[in-house]
Amino acid sequence: MFAMTNTRPSTAQEDYIRAISKLYNGIDPVGVTELAVALGVRAPSVSGMIHRLESDGLLEHRARVGVLLTARGQVLALEIHRRHRLVETFLVQALGFDWAEVHEEAEALEHHLSERVVQAIDRYLGHPTTDPHGHPIPAADGTVIVRQLCLFDSLRPGDRAVIREVGSEDPERIRRWTSLGLVPGARVQILGSEELDGIWKVEVEGRKIVTGRPGVQGLKVERLAD
């Protein structure tokens, strides 16, 4: 499925496609300013790349509204996510890297791997379905697991859930989550909360902790039935 073009996009093009894919909420176009902030570049640079990607048929630009990936752009985004997440998983499982530090390493490597190498990594790892941060890894045919997730701060006292994804690439933030046990696969139960103050009392795999709203932002969970 992923051998769709003879000419591989540049590193910058791939970074833009992935950023748009991550920012898209499923409904609204991604704003140009929002995209510029996410990529850490100036708006004029974004405008130039948007024009280039639109000319290549990878996105649709709606003036004064934002951008959307075309069907072809969405396929490319899946390919990019697959490559990045497989590399992260390989660095952690095969090379023993700290999962808090693999994002930048994967970014440095992913643009230079052929599809043959990506397939070999996938086979070596046993075709994993999620990366170390809990994000789904698209399969070779483009399929990806779909889960009904919600944000941690939507949980209320008595709710039980499993942490599925961490939405930050900041090593210090990930290490903090690790120290509290708030990692993908961990079961949590909300023992109490002070919603106005943004404070939760949580049991994490039998351990009781107290955390605030800034400490749980970016955590996505799957609710468990009562």
Q: What key phrases describe this protein's structure?
A:
226 residues, alpha+beta, Arc Repressor Mutant, subunit A, SH3 type barrels, 2 domains, two-stranded antiparallel ribbon, 8 helices, 40% helix, 19% strand, globular
CATH architecture of the largest domain: Orthogonal Bundle
Helix-strand string:
HHHEEHHHEEHEEEHE
**Which geometry do the CA atoms define?**
globular
CATH homology group of the largest domain: Winged helix-like DNA-binding domain superfamily/Winged helix DNA-binding domain
User: CATH top level of the largest domain?
Assistant: Mainly Alpha
Number of DSSP-assigned strands: 8
- Spatial order of strands in the largest sheet: 3-8-4-5-6-7
The low-confidence parts are none
The profile of the biggest β sheet is: 6 strands, antiparallel
SS-based class:
alpha+beta
Number of domain units: 2
* Through-space gap between termini: 41 Å
> Which topology of the largest domain does CATH recognise?
Arc Repressor Mutant, subunit A
Q: Helix count, per DSSP?
A: 8
Q: Provide the gyration radius in Å.
A: 19 Å
Mean pLDDT: 92
Strand content: 15-25%
Helix residue percentage: 40-55%
